[in-house]
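Re: weekly structure request thread

Next one in the queue (459 aa):
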Amino acid sequence: MPHRTIIEPFRIHSVQAIDLPDEATREAALERAGFNLFGLHADEVIIDLLTDSGTGAMSSAQWAGMMRGDESYAGSRSFYRFEAVVQDLTGMAHVIPTHQGRAAERILFEVLVDDGDVVPNNTHFDTTRANIEHQGGEAVDLVIPEGRDPQADHPFKGNMDVDALRATIEEVGPERVPLVMVTVTNNSGGGQPVSLRNLHEVRRVCDDHGIPLFLDACRFAENAWFIKTREEGQAHRTPRDIAREMFSLADGCTMSAKKDGLANIGGFLGLRDDDLASRCRNLLILTEGFPTYGGMAGYDLEAVAQGLVEVLDEHYLRYRIRSTAYLAEKVAAAGVPIVQPPGGHAVYLDAKALLPHIPPHEYPAQSLAVELYREGGVRGVEIGTVMFGRPDPAGGPDEPAAMELVRLAIPRRTYTQSHIDYVAEVVIAVAERAADLRGYVIVEQAPWLRHFTARFEPR
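Done, posted below.
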């Protein structure tokens, strides 16, 4: 059978107009926002790749489910459908709904993490790290060495360094490690997957020390697809079967359903331990809502339940991963340095390699992200020293992040091939004048998650 283009496994049912702001409008928007792309108005953006979180298109079955949503305060039938779908997928008895993933993280870490504790992860994402540090804990990144090298050729660059994990636990003592977490896929490290073999190895280390293992599972389906297509002995299995094995290795999980839940809002905390679940539910009631709705409306529970079914469809996953690789191949063919191999949900541009003349404390990835918007109205996000660097209390240069990346996160079922071709053209045009780009300084920042609200000025 001849090789043919992998097409979108859906038809477009409704459309939303895209605004096309001109160069002057974009420049004025940058000035108003303090050169922080989070500060832009959505109608000032042409192609929005800031995040794939909650920005995808829902299916007709999801919209139909929303019409069936039961908004009862307690005991909603929509919750019980949601609970059944999550339990069938994860095998976890306790399903605690939250309005999004960071709420699940906040509840879990407030219950488990004390001052001075250490939480290892392959790579913590921004909200995960912030919630741990807010409790006085230390978030330690233990990704394999290949995961810190954008050009390294490794099929599972999201893997945790098992030797480093064991050494960390032995150094600080297991009593100071309340949990180990693995992020699948590893968002901060380029959307890179974690292998089943690695999860089994991490599980054994946790068992040896009596430490629970949790998954940050917001992109579990994409990770399952990479396991199916890249890991030896897994090709014959379905993504659902692989996902269930992934969850079977964990004592619990946090989930932002705004990613592989294919929904615009929602999340959950999945747990096996009865006592831990009771403590988390008590906190849920205090801050999110009653345990049968948490922070979600009944119609959101329905949308997530249906999305968790649809996301494991092989036709969808093949299209999803291929559409991301398509953008990666186009920009890499033009000589633009990116994280290789491409991840599942995003293409990560290597700003350190593209802009070697801009030092980390002048935020090369922020400079590149701003220029993509200035050039063509494409909004990405900096994942570098702005997001993960540590400010010097004495006022000196920030401690730099391990990598300087710009993430172009592709919303699910939202943009067509011509949109992606346009993005590639913008990236290539900016790369051709990379030597002209200059760095930025931060003139205003918050103590937590500064990248959301910081204001910048060009050097």
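The domain at 60-310 is CATH 3.40.640.10 (Aspartate Aminotransferase; domain 2). The first strand starts at residue 47 and ends at 48.
Next request, please.
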